[in-house]
Amino acid sequence: MYVALFLVSCENKTNVNLDSTEPEKIALNSKNESTGLERVSKKGDISLFSGQAEIATYTLSKARYRENHPGEAVLIFVTEPFLVDRQVKADHPTPENSVNVLKLNRVDRFITGIYEYSQFTSVFTPSEIGKAKYPLKITMGSQDWCGQSYTQVNNKSGFEYQHKSYFASEGDTSLQLKYAYTGDNMMNLTRINPDLLPVGNFEILPSMHYLRTSQKEIKIYNANASLKETEEGYVYIYNIPELERSVKFYISSNNQYRIEKWEESYPTVFDGEMRTSVYELKGVKYIAYWEYNHAKDIDLRESFHLNY
């Protein structure tokens, strides 16, 4: 049974001292372990994401079709109670029915010529280190001028995968997949504790937004990864050889292992040329954003450096 550690839900109005969380920097264990649990050594405190959310905005150069396109990404991290059985946010949480999760909402927006894409991914990960390996739920919605699709992955004796799409080639799909690391959960593992990231050889379910736009087979793939310590923090790289896909995170030692930049490399559709999408941090704020929903609050968007 999950043990619920309720920090503060997304709607709680408690304020947090956001300048006091600077985790101690400890050298990595040199063991090449894929589970991550044997390597946990760093100190962190994800209460940084309770009471208010961390909202980080990134400039985006998106590799799509035969070139790179301008765009923007937003990462929103917050903790909240989550119903384990129903796999939704708990309105009335108790230690018996809920677990505390780190929720990531990731928004990617980019333009390809005349029309735009909008992809929204949510990942719900148990905040307890020993239970964070597999997310409880992943959802991803993708919209562009051609149509839209929706994907949901639930943690139920493995991963239950469901996909609904406007496009005939994709149709409605339901699959049962075995447990594996997920590309969408890598950011949450990073923020909880970088030692949870798999290194060496492991299996992975690629990110939902990548599978949607690349139109690759929905299955578990073999992957390999490395985690290196630098003066600023850490660099984490994982590769999926069959897909020719690699993802690189530049992780800060401070601010609960913030992701300062990341890159996603893969062959783009139509010509199969290798290109790299680059996400570079441009601004961070900590705010209980759900309290600012009046017309007058629209001016706050300027402080987030948002273009979309």
Task: Please supply descriptive tags for the structure shown above.
single chain; 308 residues; 16-stranded mixed beta sheet; 2 helices; 16 strands; globular
Question: What do you see in this structure?
Answer:
The chain has helices spanning 186-192, 208-214, and strands at residues 53-64, 67-83, 88-89, 98-112, 115-126, 137-144, 147-155, 159-165, 173-177, 181-182, 200-205, 221-229, 233-240, 245-252, 259-267, 274-287. The model is unreliable at 1-36 (pLDDT under 50). It has a 16-stranded mixed sheet that branches. A hairpin with a 4-residue loop joins strand 2 (67-83) and strand 3 (88-89). The protein has 308 residues and is mainly beta.
Strand content: over 45%
Percent range of helical residues = under 10%
Question: Would you list the SSEs in sequence order as H and E?
Answer: EEEEEEEEEEHEHEEEEE
Low-confidence stretches: 1-36
Largest sheet: 16 strands, mixed
User: What radius of gyration results from the CA coordinates?
Assistant: 19 Å
Q: Give the end-to-end Cα distance, rounded to a whole number of Å.
A: 42 Å
